Amino acid sequence: MKGYVFHGPGQSAWEDVPDPDVREPTDAIVRVDAVTICGTDLHILRGDVPEVTAGTVLGHEAVGEVVEIGGDVRTVQPGDRVLVSCITACGRCRFCREGRYGQCRGGGGWLLGHLIDGTQAEYVRVPCADLSVHPLPSAVTNEDGVLLADIFPTAYEVGVLNGHVRPGDTVAVVGAGPIGLAAIATARLFAPERVVAVDVAAPRLEAARKLGAEAVADAREAPEQLIADLTGGLGADVVVEAVGLPETFEACTRMVRPGGHVANVGVHGKPATLRLEQLWSRNVTITTGLVDTCSTPTLLRMAATGRLPTSQLVTHTFPLHHMEEAYDVFAHAGDTGALKVVLGGERHDVVAVNAA
After folding, report:
1. Which of 70, 139, 280, 303 supports an S-S bond with 25, CB 3.0-4.6 Å?
2. Strand pairing of 215-218 and 194-199?
3. Three-class secondary structure assignment of 24-65
4. Which 8-state DSSP code applies to residue 159?
């Protein structure tokens, strides 16, 4: 079969790789029908995630069909259409029992495309399948479903829930890429007074408006002042960091009000300065987190009833074997206008651009 293989920083290729097989009785083999590319994959290619070794198939999000299962798998059968979660959960360790699957100590956590071969291939082996794949409702398309493998649970859990968004809040989302846009969409579920999107790209700010942001700000033009003006000088109740750069994290700590929350979602490859001499007396809560995907069943039900604007984030679709082209489009989002690219999806034969 073919897979997209990491060969070291700046080196990757769509090439022949061994077919996966069942190694443990809890494994499932899934034929990949739709997959997407994550900003974390770009971090890996830049060398920001050193645990990923050369020769690893990338990718941690997919929709597909179960083709084989181990003897201990109980929740799915061959022929089932499933969502492959970005997080693997053993279901037995302390953290899994607490619903903190991202911290699994029983052989799970972030495995796919990180510590083992991932989903950007024609087939993928999914360990601990009972908690790590989810049957897809028939009302959820492949293109919509694949966005529930990572970005929507991540934005919802690590951004909105960790940030304790409440009715009437002012929420600032710094970074209007796919995760930031999903944070805007899911923050709206809690009826905040306003959501403010901050980014440097005008197309992304326009997408943020369409998803419910009442105000937008160019990150280069003192967004802290806009937040202050909107809140009578207090600052935002919740600030979601969805970029992963030192300067954006530090800007978030300047935007938050006393007693507010900074929810860091971005993947950081460099140290950021924590200005405790300014923050120590302000009762600010700063949270970090790897997604747990414990919210995935809830989000799937919402998607099935049209409550999540997943399809609005898909701007480009490709056949699965156009992986290298899709990476190029996604990596140059400033030029291409890419938000989320989906490979496979409902169309397999031509490249289609859904939005500029």
Report:
1. 70
2. parallel
3. CCCCEEEEEEEEECCHHHHHHHCCCCCCCCCCEECCCCEEEE
4. I
Report the DSSP beta bridge partners of residue 214.
none
Count of other CB atoms within 10 angstroms of residue 353: 14
Tell me if residue 130 falls in helix, strand or coil: helix
Residues forming beta bridges with residue 317, ordered by sequence position: 342, 352
Give the CA radius of gyration of the chain. 20
Model confidence pLDDT, tens digit, residues 136-154: 999 999 999 999 999 999 9
CA–CA separation, 307 and 301 (whole Å): 9
Tell me the residue type at 275.
R
For residue 180, name the pLDDT band (cuts at 50, 70, 90): very high
* φ and ψ at residue 350, rounded to 5 degrees: -140, 155
Model confidence over 54-99: pLDDT tens digits?
999 999 999 999 999 999 999 999 999 999 999 999 999 999 999 9
The token pair at 312 is 């609005």
3-state secondary structure (DSSP) of residue 329: helix
What's the pLDDT score for residue 346? 57
Tokens 């360990």 label which residue? 127
Query: How large is the angle between the packed helices 178-187 and 202-210, nearest 10 degrees?
Result: 20
> CA dist 181 to 6, 41, 93, 240, 269, Å?
28, 18, 33, 11, 22
What is the H or E stretch that residue 6 is in?
strand 2-8
Rounded-to-integer distance, Cα 35 and Cα 43, Å: 18
**Global model pTM greater than 0.85:** yes
Beta-bridged to residue 195, according to DSSP, are: 171
45 touches 324 (CB < 8 A) = no
The neighbouring-strand residues paired with 36 are 342
